[in-house]
Predict the 3D structure of the following.
Amino acid sequence: MGEAAVLIYVRESPQHGRGVFATGLIAAGTALITFRGPLLRREQVDFQDYHLQVGDDLYLGPSGGADDFVNHSCAPNGGFADGLVLRALRDIAANEEITWDYSCAIDEADFPGFACACGAASCRGIVRSFRHLEPEVRERLRPWALPYLRDRYR
Ligand SMILES: [Zn+2]
């Protein structure tokens, strides 16, 4: 599990199901967790189960670890600055929920979106595919998006 195991823990989230929380104060820039799991084609994905889109026709299935439980926020404290490593975008307080913006990974043409309950003042209301975001939102999220999305839709 490495160093991240002492930084984070999983418990019930007020937002959705289980979530991942900071064990203690975490400094901005710290690697929080590396997303893992079996690489799957879309036709192999169980969409009822945890999955993370990492390419046009490429997904990570569940790892069974804490990375399966990190919830979305429209004002996240985590982002994918390098590959599948989630890093703290700012200092994170003890027991604060760790989140990332799911639009930084999802880019299905037919993704219907889902209603967001993140509670952020800047909540977009519906979480959409990267390609369906307003251009200015896409520009803001681009530095924290997965590599396969960084240079698209300019
Ligand atoms: Zn939201």
Q: What stands out?
A: The chain has a mean pLDDT of 94. The chain is about 10% helix and 25% strand. The chain has one domain: 4-149. The first helix runs from residue 4 to 7.
